[in-house]
Amino acid sequence: MAEKKEHIEIVSLPEYAQADTSFVVSTLCSLGPDFFAHTEAPHRHEFYTIYWIRKGELVHTIDTVTHVVKKNTLFFLAPRQVHKMQFSEKVDGFMIAFPDAFMCMQEPLVGIQSGLFINNQFSSVITLDHEQEKEFEVIVQRMLRELQEKEAGYETALNSLLRYFLVLASRINGTNMAAVPEQFASHNSSVFLHFKNLIEENYHRLKNVSDYADQLHIKPVLLNEISKQLSGLTAGEHIRNRIILEAQRYLYNTDLTAKEISYKLGFEDPHYFSRFFKKYTNQSPSEFRDAARAGAATVGVNETPSVA
Fold it and tell me: Is the separation of the CB atoms in 46 and 82 below 8 Å?
């Protein structure tokens, strides 16, 4: 009898870093056996990750959606997303990885982060054309050089190169934050990013907008307005979507029962959890598990150039 899968492995950045644990940029082949030992089993990263698959083939499952990749593609993964990868033997590409602290070294990359790493689908996949490939190649090679030589100010240089990389990716992806008056834009973006981070830390125990508004020291109605303005979704929808996503991750990647998952997500009544899940997905937990594992959610990336 196969062993019951109850957990999803968490990978920290030092496990991939060869020298500097605050920022990693490397060819996939240079990452070594530790990297490939993790890839085929569902796991989470504690850091932001960008994969650039340049050659070869990759079957990449992000949360419950499987992307079939055959050429030049960028993947953006936020911390705690669940993914697994199956590479072809001739795969070539890069991995860029960094923690929250590096992203906020100067000022937060709020608009870019909200669009590429944190969005309604919780992931971004972008296919590059030949000219775009050349632009990104220049940036990545410069990152590699800065990381290797480590001259004075190299961390600032890496941060600036990362920002430019993400700006270009955002343009290709069509990612834009809603226009707001300049005097409010920075504040509202900061509040929204803080709200999203609070959800990640507390979704298993805090499920009401008022709980998060209290922590942000604003009124729930204002939190909803900011959330709607910057993302198109209310604060309540973000909280609910995060809970549903985590339930889907456990249903797809583990053998835990719906009852066991409900307790992990902070529901005292498993029957209420099942009703909650079905209300917002139109499937019972068992129906979702069967459909997802049957491969119903599969995307051919070359046929769908951009999934926001």
Answer: no
Nearest by Cα to 143 from 163, 128, 132, 157: 157
C-alpha radius of gyration, the chain, whole number: 20
Reading the block at residue 200, the tokens are 């990640």
Query: Is 76:169 a contact under the CB 8 Å cutoff?
Result: yes
Distance CA(252)–CA(285), nearest Å, equals 10
| Residue 47, φ and ψ in degrees, nearest 5 | -150, 165
Closest CA to 82 of 3, 7, 25, 22: 7
Name the DSSP class of 15.
G
Of 241, 242, 218, 238, nearest to 230 by C-alpha is 238
Residue 107 has pLDDT above 80, yes or no: no
pLDDT over 60 (residue 240) = yes
d(CA 257, CA 18): 39
Residue written as token pair 């937990």: 285
Determine whether 140 is exposed, middle or buried from the number of CB atoms within 10 Å of its CB (0-12, 13-18, 19+). Answer: buried
Contact 117, 52 (CB under 8 A): no
Domains of the chain by range and CATH? 9-176 (2.60.120.280), 182-293 (1.10.10.60)
Provide the mean pLDDT of the chain.
81
Residue type (1 letter), 227: S
Give the end-to-end CA distance of the chain in Å, rounded to a whole number: 40
Minimal CA–CA distance to 163: which of 125, 95, 116? 116
Structure tokens at 222: 């204002």
